[in-house]
Amino acid sequence: MLSEKIYALRRKNGLSQEQLAEIIGVSRQTISKWEQGSSTPELEKLKALSVCFQVTIDELANDEESRTAAVPAKKGDSVEQNALAGKLGIGLCVTGAVCLILTSVLTVLHPAAAERVENSFVVTLSGTGMLFALFTAFMVIGVLLIWKKK
User: Fold this and answer.
1) 102 neighbors 63 (Cβ within 8 angstroms)
2) Distance CA 60, CA 58 (A)
3) Assessment of whether the complete model's pTM goes beyond 0.90
4) For 46-71, what is each residue's pLDDT tens digit?
């Protein structure tokens, strides 16, 4: 809490309430109220305290433990999730593209093998068409994952 930080920093710097009050330009009673938590310093006084104690206003006003524990963890999770989605997207794009190319080459070079693939699928859409659709879906999903990362 701010009141505890003001007290701790004042003590750490070897200042009395009266000495700090002179430096900041307030009364000793005001320093006492800040340290008790019954009032809080205005922005200009927070600036003066931060200069006096050589800390940022953020360090002075925020609870350092909760800030360091919560914020970086969330940010790190988000970065890791984006990196994983990007890698998965690239993997799906590459897999889809390679399989499309191989299926196309197989269809052109070995029509008999393509005919067997056609006959092996029971779905009304031809077997080769199913493969093309599946591999294209891989590529589309991969592109979406990469796009989501950015």
Assistant:
1) no
2) 5
3) no
4) 888 988 989 888 888 886 544 444 44
